[in-house]
Structure of Metallo-beta-lactamase domain-containing protein:
Amino acid sequence: METGFFQFTVGNLQCTLITDGKHAYADPKALLFPDAPAEELASELAMHGISADHWPCWVSDYSCLLIDTGKRKILLDTGAGEMLPEAGKVVENMRAAGISPESVDCVLISHAHPDHVGGAGYFPDARIVMSHREWQFWTGSPTLPRLPDDFRNLLASMVSSLLAPLRERVELVDGDTEIAPGIRLVEAPGHTPGHLALLAASRGEHLIYAGDAVIHEIHIRNPQWSPLVDVLPDESTRTRNRLLSEAADNRAVFVGFHLPHAGTISRDDAGFAWHQLVV
């Protein structure tokens, strides 16, 4: 998003996709598609203009979503805050979109990874909502068996330090939870145990915010391929299939934190297909 934000409507809901910045991840094949068969992955990468033999880094978008119901402003995820020099721009881009950060009255955290919760301090007066299961996982002794030891320890330490200041502010929810009329949080486990997604409906139109349930466009065509950072890969696959099916069935606008833009999902002979909204 060259302007730092993109605005669209879903029924009566005014929606703004707000970039927090970007981040470059090394060794993206191992990070995003560790269990994908080599030949199939090479074919999928080629369709995206990527060489399987030379893909040194993946530059990921960080996109938060703001929903204005007319009575409330609800922000989905907060970006990385001050952790990364190329991120932490959610407030700047929110202002560029004509939205006052002080007007945000509810912040929904899809999961506790640092790039999603790092900017929570930018919204000191907002209600913060997170999954009870997610909070318990990260404030206990999180098990991250798929990650290398050094990355595992760093991630657990970072999350712990970011959640500690929120302890007195956070509202923990269990199961499906209505946040506002027509807007509800649903369990979407896999990427993390307490990962949440958001489903919204207004005047017959639908919106799905998937958080990190779908990280790359290739996961839309191949939901069976789970990223290395997915704590529960089998659950992650089931969650992806469920959210993508719901998006296709309802012709929903589909948003993911790491996807390059908002789009829609359809079905074809190969499975699910992604269609980016026209900018």
